[in-house]
Every structure is written in C-alpha cells, then in structure tokens.
Amino acid sequence: MMTRFLESNFSLPALFVLCLGSALMIVKETHQTRLLFAQLQTLESQRWALQEDYSRLVLEYSTLSAPHRISELSGTTLAMTSPDAAAIKVVEQ
Amino acid sequence: MSAKITKHSGYQVRVLVVAAVLAGLFGMLVFRLVQLQVGASQYGADFLKRQGDLRAVRSAEIPAYRGLITDRRGSPLAVSTPVVTLWANPQQLIGSGKEPALAQLLNLPVDDFVKKLERYRNKQFMYLARHQTPAVARAVLSSDIPGIYGQREYRRFYPAGEVVSQLVGTTNIDGDGASGVEMRFDHRLQGVPGKKRFIKDLHGDAIRDIGVVSEASDGESLQLSIDLRLQHAQHRELLRAMTETGAAAASAVTVDAQTGEILAMTNLPSFNPNRRGQLNLAAMRNRVVTDVYEPGSTVKPLTLVAALESGEFDIDTIIDTSPGRITVGDKVLPDPRNYGAISVSRVIEKSSQVGVTKIAQAVGHENIIDVFQRFGLGQATGAEFPGERSGRLPDHDFWSAIDQVTPAFGYGLLVTPLQLAHAYSAFANDGRLVPLTLLATDNVPSNGKQVVSPEIARKVITVLHRVTGDEGTAKRASVPGFSVGGKTGTVHKVGKAGYLDDRYVALFAGVSPIESPRYVTVVVIDEPEGDIYGGGTAAAPVYSRITQEVLRIRNAVPDSAEEKDVLLLAEAGGIPRG
Fold it and tell me: CA–CA distance from B439 to each of B146, B263, B382, B383, B384 (Å)?
C-alpha cells in the first residue's frame, strides 16, 4: 500500500503539501508562543506594579494604625481614656 | 593512430581521477556536515547547540516574594516591598559624557563618582545604588544615559520598628533571614526564586526573553502569636521603668499558659530595623531568650512545690524563723527582721530566707532540683528562637551544706526570663506545662505535660496571690479590679570577684487573673540605680501596669464586676465575641 503510494504520480505533490502544512503550523505556533510570552511579561510587570502599591499601602496602613498613634489621638482629639475597674460592665449572653 | 588514442585516453583518465578526487573531497565535506548537524558524535549537534547557547542565551533569576510576618490580629510586622537596584556597565558609560548628569540624579558628589567609575574602567558591572524606590529608579532608567540597568529586588520593611525589632529580627541585604523570627522561620518565609531565559547580544544587552524555565513560588506568610497592642504596652512600660530606675536594660515577656503562645516579648535598649546605619549589637539581643540570670526568690514557688509534694509541709504548716538568721556551713543567711513563727505561706509572702532554708534542708536539694527540671528550667522552652539559651541547673560532685540550700532561693542556677515564664505557666494551667510557641494557634496543644498535681498548682497560686496582698513583698504588683499573684526577686549581679554589693537585677514573675489563671508575665530590670532597685519596687509596678493591659486587651472579667453590674443581653443580636 505504502510502496504503491510512493510509486504513484501523486506522491511528490502530496508530500510537498504535507510538508508545507506542517511548516505553516510551526510558524503559527511560534507566533502564538511569542504573543503569549509578551502577554505574560505585561502581566508580570502589572503584578510588580500592584505589589509596589500593595506594600506601600500596607506600610501606610500600619503607620496610621500604630498603637502609639492611636493612643495619642484617642487621648488628645477624642478625649478617651482606658476605663477603670469600676466603669467596666460585663455583658453576659 | 594508436599514439593518438593513447594520448586521448590518458587525458580522459586524468579528468576522471581529478573528478573523483574532487567528488571525494566534496563527499567528505557533506559527510562532516551531516555528522556535525545531525550526528551524535562528541562534537555533534548537541555540542554545537550548547556552544551557541553559551554565547547567546543567559538565564536570569525571577525573585520570589518573601512572606509577610503579621501579629496575631494581622497587623504587619515585616513586609517585603519591591525596590530596584541600579547597576551600570562602566565600559558603556565611560566616555558618554553623561557621568555628571548621572551623579546628580543619584545624589552623589560628581568627583567621587568619576573616580569610582575610573576604578571600574575594565569591569562590565558596577553597583550604582542598591534598593532604590521604584519611583527614583524609574527617573534614572528613563534618562538617556547609556549603560544603566535596573534589577528588581525586594527589600524588607518593619512597620512596627523598634517595638518588636529583636523578636522579628532582620534579613541581610540578599534577603535571607539573619536573626529572630526571620531566621527561625526562614525556610517558610523564603519562596523559591524562578528562572527565565533570554537572548543577549554581543554587548551583553538582553534582546528578548525566550521563556520561563521555572516560575517563582512566593514565600509563606506567618501569623505570630504576638499581639502588637500588648507588645506596644510592654515597650511603653519598660521605657518608663528605665527612666524611673536608671536601669541599663529591661525585658518583659507575657505568655498564654493554656496555649503556650508567647503574647509579647520586649527588650530595651532596642533598635530601629529600618535604619541600619549604626547597629548596636547589645540592642539587637533578644534578652528574654538569650540572657541568663540567677532567678533569686522568683524560684521560691518551685521550692514550695517540692515542700508540698514531700507531704511534710502544707501552706499553713508553722515554721519558726527566729532569731531572724540561720547559719549554713560558714555562711549566715539573714532575714530583714525576725518574723518569728510563721506559716509556710507567710515564708513565701515575706520571702523569708530563714524559712526557705529550713524547708530546703527538710526536703533535700535532689527533690528541689527535680522540681526545677520538671518545670523546664535548664531545658529549651520549645520556642526554638535563634540564640535561645537553656540556662543551667546546679550540678556538683560534692554538695557542701551551702550548695544544698542556695538553689532553693534561686542562687547557683541560671535561667532565661522566658524559662521563668514557662515554669510559672504550669501554675496557671492546673499543673500542665505546654511547650511555648511563637506562632498563633487556635487549639490547646495536646503535647502538654502534667508536671505537678492540679491541687498543688492551685495552692501555689493562692500563695502567689497573697504575695501581692497588703502583707506581701509585692503590694505594688496588684492590679485595680483584678486579683493577681506573683513573686519578686532581687539578685546581686556577679562581677569579677563574686557578687557585687551595689548592682542588682530586679525580677518579677506573676500570674493573672487568680480566679481563672491564664497569663504569665515576667519582668526583668537589669541594674536599676539608686533607691529603687528591688523586685518589689522596680519590677512589680511594671508588672502591674503591663498586666492591666493584658487583662484589658484579652477581655478578662474583673473581680469587681458584681451581680448588679452584669447586664444581660437579649438572645438575639448579641455582640460579637472578642
């Protein structure tokens, strides 16, 4: 069967078409890989920028919520104090 | 004719020979080409491909994000932030005429910078500025100066600064844990850096990335057992104590006896881990685990355990301490005054040297040291903090009369403040000793060890409470609204020629609240100066103020909450439990 196909007049053009097809597929896949890799790099730099923002915000948050800042602000601007023992009421469920 | 034919055939033969030789040479070339491109010989296809890659393909590291360290409520204690390290290729930079402009952008003196460049003239790599904020780096990189590159890295920031610096520790410039929690849990915090490949040109510039070999996997985040609010309260109170007593150093540690969690651990002097200019090594030590002290009277409750276990004593057994001093070997051990005949409980309340010595002589030093061992003295606490010391229990070949009694009042052995807190945690947990941990945990660990019966633990708690009563040595440890208990200790420091008369360590170890004991705090004030030097005057007030915060933050119910104060909440719409 195989030998008969190879000996026939179709063999050469058919092999040529198959070869061309596979070459084009390689070209397409390579192109796809590049596109995806470019996309990956964009996403990576986005992640980098987001991490930059995230860690900056974490630092800002913890600076603003630092216990000594809270205790100072609650005392000075809100006139709050720690309750003494007599002022504590226990709520039971 | 024949000559002509011969001549002709000779010509043909020559042509054939030359053609054959040429074809042979061409064949050899083709064979060699096939051998190189397709074959698998020593210098075959693989070899050529490898050699080509060696010249053009480079791989670069993709940095992994180091895990976050937070306190038990999620407040960040250590955060990695993206930074850019700027480097230059001097061979491209020199001669561009842009050197002064670059020096200006980097805020460096122009002359120094040019000199430095000159030293690196033959190199292809030179750091310009490490760990720059992305905004600064962008400004430099977007300028049109040739030969400047940025390398993405992470830098560690410590938002809580000096309040937790010794505990959290630091990383070195390469991002590896160098001390503290950063070092202890480095294997979990550190991710695995990834790898990507790129093609470079003749000058070493990257032309394009060709793929990721392995993805970077980020490090794990850690939730510590520390409560930052409590840590801050300890720091504040230790600062105040240092000012009031003129002490050289101070430490405090609070543990949850039921779970073994370390809730706060503070040391002064401290350092700011975000500013690494001048590091003072003494300030970097986490004294709670790395420094050992003679515990002094703070071990008397353990001696009391040995006494109660012997069956010869109960807390109301009467001991005669007259005439206020006792001679052991060639040493005289005095009490401040003659207490007369007092109960065992009173001996501890008053910290009577005579009473404790009599107990020690009756119980025997082996039994006392056995109790020390069971309560974890001389052994690691389980926290496995870098540099943690396990202290030392007395071990003599020959026990002289004085050697046999000194351990009972805390001389001749060395403990860390953390070990002392650990030992007291057994009293606060019905006699169960739970290994300590630095990580937040929800469950009561099952690997606790019953080191003393719950009844004896309860009796010791009762006595500890009396120590903070009106007649005890630690009145100033009491907390308004709550019942607490504890024991003071005042120890002479050791100098070159033995104990020093005028230099002390003041200690306090306490348990709270008495009704349902759970929190153990140890305070150590090192070398207080002037009149305030004793455990009862220098350390006990600090314990009181710290414990007030502990109980408030942990929502303990005050004793003074009487029936009328208890509000009953309707079943629906209850408040969230804290």
Answer: 49, 10, 11, 9, 11
For residue B354, give every residue at least 6 positions away whose Cβ sits within 8 Å of its Cβ, in sequence order, or none.
B321, B324, B325, B326, B333, B334, B335, B339
Q: In chain A, at which residue ranges do the beta strands (DSSP E only) sit?
A: 91-92
Please give the backbone phi and psi of residue B63, each rounded to the nearest 5 degrees, phi first.
-65, 140
Q: Which residues lie across from B523 on neighbouring strands?
A: B252, B508
For B251-260, write each residue's pLDDT tens digit.
999 999 999 9
Amino acid letter at A61?
Y
Instruction: Please say if B297 is a catalytic residue.
Output: yes
What pLDDT, on the 0 to 100 scale, is given for residue A21? 96
Q: Which of B158, B547, B560 to substitute to test the interface with A, most A CBs within 10 Å?
A: B560
pLDDT band at B568 (very low <50, low <70, confident <90, very high): low
Are A51 and B566 inside 8 Å of each other by CB?
no
pTM: 0.80
φ, ψ of residue B508 to 5 degrees: the values are -145, 130
DSSP characters for B240-308? HHHHHH--SEEEEEEEETTT-BEEEEEEES---TT--SS--HHHH--HHHH--B--GGGGHHHHHHHHH
**Domains of chain B, start order:** 66-193 (3.90.1310.10), 228-553 (3.40.710.10)
Residue B574 has pLDDT above 50, yes or no: no
Residue A72 main-chain phi, psi, to 5 deg: -70, -50
- Integer angstrom CA distances of residue A55 from A52, B156, B260, B456: 6, 10, 31, 51
Instruction: Read off the pLDDT of residues B360-370 as tens digits, 9 standing for 90 and up.
Output: 999 988 999 99
* Whether pLDDT at B425 is above 90: yes
Catalytic residue among B297, B343, B478, B544: B297
B567 contacts A90? CB cut-off 8 A: yes
Which pLDDT does position B479 carry in this prediction?
A: 87
Residue A55: list chain B partners with CB under 8 A: 79-82, 157
- C-alpha separations of B364 from A49, B64, B359, B392 in Å: 68, 58, 8, 19
pLDDT in tens, B262-316: 999 999 888 888 877 666 778 888 899 989 999 999 999 999 999 999 888 888 8
**Cβ neighbours for B285, distance < 8 A, ≥ 6 positions apart:** B166, B267, B291, B387
CB contact under 8 Å between A84 and B480, yes or no, is yes
ipTM over 0.90: no
Q: Report the chain A residue with the minimal C-alpha distance to residue B230.
A: A67
